[in-house]
Write a structure and sequence with these properties.
Structural class: alpha+beta
Order of helices and strands: HHHHHHHEEHEEHEEHEEEEEEEEEEEEEE
Strand content: 15-25%
Number of strands: 20
Largest sheet: 5 strands, mixed
Shape: globular
Strand order of the largest sheet: 2-1-11-5-6
Number of helices: 10
């Protein structure tokens, strides 16, 4: 118990330092990031299936729990060999420090060293104090055993304070991120501003997913356990590789380029049929092909590789973004606000029609031109397909699976998407009967989802509703059921309801 409390104290102090001092590492997050980097194939989908967008919280807690378990073992060792336990604490601290400095370019090495010394020192002091309290000899046995109670009470109090410090430190760290950038120039208006959305873009049904997903509700799936804090004043975007004129653009330089804005629906390849790892937003930024033209793409450059601040990579065909049919962009704004840190501030890639794992690099720092065979991006060696076009999909939002529906005239509704092909139609089947056409909202563009509504006569009993979509090329959504790996989930979404 003394070791566990000491380990908790060390973690709590480290989290407070990480929250208060930009550049100081959170060892829990840094070790977690290292574990993610060596994950085996299939681990991503397993975690997302279990925890969805809570995966980062759960993984942070798991790393902390493993560290505290290790500290409890050192507590047992310390009872008879205190020096060996101190060496264990120091070794763990030095290992976490090395991981932080080597793998995270945002960590200040000096601050990492200071944080290690302070955190390990606090852990060792707490361990010594608690062991001393636990082994004070009594002249005569006390009834009740007050020494035991003092030890237990003190240990629990230390652990409680440490946990509180850790939570506060993590909240401080998240609160000081550049979610709403300060001292950053306003995002310029687009060359051709979009008109307001027509009323017909929304069907106006309570409980139906909105056409534009608010920033705070937009799904987040990435490998960063703590939102990176990139400074726009020092951030740079480099365009390198098979180009005639390599570019280095600062944030202000990027804002000087002509801006476009467009609504684009993006989706995570891990999204299950009927899942919510998909969203639609208004993005603004320079066209990617304009930047690539400025750099001069060389013949034979068949792959665009996006690199994040921490080295995370994606890759997609050059031909996909060099055509006028698709407006891939380096986005700097989301829903008329500077890009939130959770979604990639200062800049990220938005490529209509491609799953995020092959295109949507957040916290973008480098765009490299190379050949298709020369490089495999982050997720490809882990078993995911190298090409990742978003599949035609549809979802039932109303009624919810397992809900009760009143008999008589009833309405089913949801969303359907097929960027960048658009949605031509949505059909609904009741109890395995023929598919019948649903009403669609007015499409914003081929790059966004649409809402749909279907009226049906609900008779008493159990009923199953299924939905399918047809994209703008005339291709009907696939009925065969597949898992998300390696290139997206297939199948019709269905819900079962009780009509009374």
């Amino acid at each position: 118990m003394a070791g566990a409390a000491a380990g908790t104290a060390a973690i709590g102090v480290n989290e407070i330092l990480a929250g208060l001092v930009p550049g100081a590492p959170s060892f829990v997050a840094e070790v977690g990031a290292a574990v993610i980097a060596i994950q085996p194939p299939g681990a991503k989908q397993f975690v997302v299936d279990l925890f969805g967008t809570n995966d980062k919280l759960v993984f942070n807690l798991l790393i902390a729990a493993v560290a505290i378990a290790g500290a409890s073992v050192l507590g047992v060792v310390a009872r008879h060999r205190f020096g060996l336990a101190v060496a264990g604490f120091a070794g763990a601290g030095l290992g976490a420090m090395a991981i932080s400095i080597l793998l995270d370019p945002l960590v200040d090495p000096l601050l990492a060293i200071i944080s290690t010394v302070v955190s390990v020192g606090v852990g060792v002091v707490v361990l010594r104090a608690l062991l001393a309290l636990a082994t004070v000899p009594d002249a005569e046995p006390e009834m009740p055993d007050w020494s035991r109670r003092r030890f237990l009470g003190t240990s629990l109090a230390v652990a409680g304070v440490a946990v509180s410090a850790g939570v506060v430190g993590r909240l401080l760290g998240e609160g000081t991120r550049v979610a709403e950038p300060v001292d950053v120039p306003p995002i310029p208006e687009p060359v051709t501003p979009l008109p307001d959305l027509p009323p017909a873009a929304e069907l106006g049904l309570d409980g139906l997913t909105s056409i534009v997903t608010p920033n705070a509700e937009f799904y987040r799936i990435d490998t960063a356990l703590i939102t990176p804090r990139l400074d726009a004043a020092t951030w740079e975007l480099r365009i390198t590789g098979m180009v005639d004129r390599p570019l280095t653009l600062r944030y202000a330089d990027l804002l000087e380029r002509p801006m476009i804005e467009q609504y684009v629906t993006i989706a995570c390849v891990s999204n299950e049929v009927g899942g919510d790892l998909v969203g639609n937003a208004l993005w603004r930024g320079p066209l990617l092909r304009d930047l690539l033209d400025e750099a001069g793409v060389q013949a034979g450059a068949s792959q665009v590789v996006g690199r994040s601040y921490d080295g995370w990579t994606c890759g997609f065909p050059t031909d996909w973004v060099m055509t006028d049919e698709r407006d891939a962009m380096v986005a700097v704004a989301m829903n008329d606000e500077p890009l939130p840190a959770d979604h990639g501030f200062p800049a990220r890639l938005i490529v209509p029609g491609l799953f995020g794992y092959v295109s949507a690099t957040k916290w973008l720092t480098n765009i490299e031109l190379t050949t298709w065979d020369a490089f495999d991006a982050y997720w490809v060696p882990l078993g995911w397909a190298k090409e990742g076009p978003i599949l035609t999909q549809s979802r039932i939002d109303l009624p919810r699976n397992g809900s009760a529906v009143a008999a008589g005239d009833a309405v089913a509704a949801g969303v359907a998407w097929a960027p960048d092909r658009g949605v031509a139609g949505v059909e609904v089947s009741v109890d395995g009967g023929p598919f019948e056409a649903a009403e669609l909202s007015a499409a914003i563009s081929d790059t966004t989802w649409v809402q749909w509504r279907f009226a049906w006569d609900a008779s008493p009993g159990e009923h199953i509703l299924q939905v399918r979509a047809t994209d703008g090329t005339g291709m009907v959504q696939e009925s065969r059921q597949t898992r998300p790996a390696p290139d997206g989930a297939r199948g019709y979404h269905s819900v079962q309801v009780t009509v009374a």
